[in-house]
Amino acid sequence: MLHSMTGFARETVETTLGTLTWEIRAVNHRYLDVQFKIPEDLRPKEQVFRQQASAILGRGKIECGLYFRRATDQQSEMQIDTELVKLLSSRISEVSAILPSPAGINPIEILRWPGVLQQREVDAEPLFEEASALLDTTLEALDDMRMSEGRRIVEMLESRCVDIESIAALVRLRMPEVLAASRAKQRERIEKLDVEADPARLEVELALLAQKIDVDEELDRLESHLVEIRDALKDAKPVGRRLDFLMQELNREANTLGSKSADAETTKAAVDLKVLIEQMREQIQNVE
């Protein structure tokens, strides 16, 4: 099933250690680029998180943020190192005795001194296990969103393929008429010159002209590319680059059709094809 490269997922879990929240944002990119913003306690586990993401995501720029809010324990949280506070107070008194008119010390400034407030260390292993399980859940939610968006892209591409087929069929249906009109126009021009033309040479020239404006080969290739596109849409593997290449091929055939055009209707058909192909290309830029 086709996957979009854009998506967002956010999952939260309450643990005995605190609240964990994963936020993942995904946008289109040429390859897989996964970036992590995680607490320092879990920084050594970043490579494991990266492997989890790579196992599910194939392409895109992925921004993963892990946010941790510690559970508060009034008995053990924010303990004050009283010995350090006493030492700081003693040193402040010594400095105050030297200065002529020292300002008062704000207790908050003392609390900000490194080491005055002490927090218990978090056990990283249980925290990692919870974060890893939550990451899997968040990645699944992101993948579901990308798959849902992919289904809408498939519907759009299928619709444009049908429109392209209709235009190609109309051009093919009109080709005998276009060739006949071109042949008649060339004969009329020769007659206006009032010269006697070699009938055999004239037929050869008219045949060469018909060959130059005949677009059967281009229409055949166009229809062949549409078959390839539909096959790609059913593929379970990432097909974004393959579809992008097919858009280039479709655009090439539309350009050739326009350059070979011998009447206004065929020119209009070539322009309509290019508009449809561009609409498809814009959507395919977002396909994994």
How would you describe what is shown here?
It is a single chain. The protein is built from eight helices and six strands. By secondary structure, the protein is α+β, with helices and mostly antiparallel strands. It has three domains: 7-72 and 124-147, Ribosomal Protein S5, domain 2, CATH 3.30.230; 79-118, no CATH class; 148-284, no CATH class. The strands form two sheets. Strands 1-2-4-3 form a four-stranded mixed beta sheet, with helices on one face. Strands 5-6 form a two-stranded antiparallel ribbon. Helix 4 packs antiparallel against helix 8 and helix 7 (240-259) packs antiparallel against helix 8. The protein starts with 6 loop residues before the first strand and ends with a helix. The mean pLDDT is 83.
Question: How confident overall, as mean pLDDT?
Answer: 83
Gap from first CA to last CA: 10 Å
Q: Radius of gyration from the CA trace?
A: 35 Å
Secondary structure class reads: alpha+beta
Uncertain stretches of 5 or more adjacent residues = none
Q: Tally the beta strands.
A: 6
Number of helical segments with 4 or more residues: 8
Tally the structural domains: 3
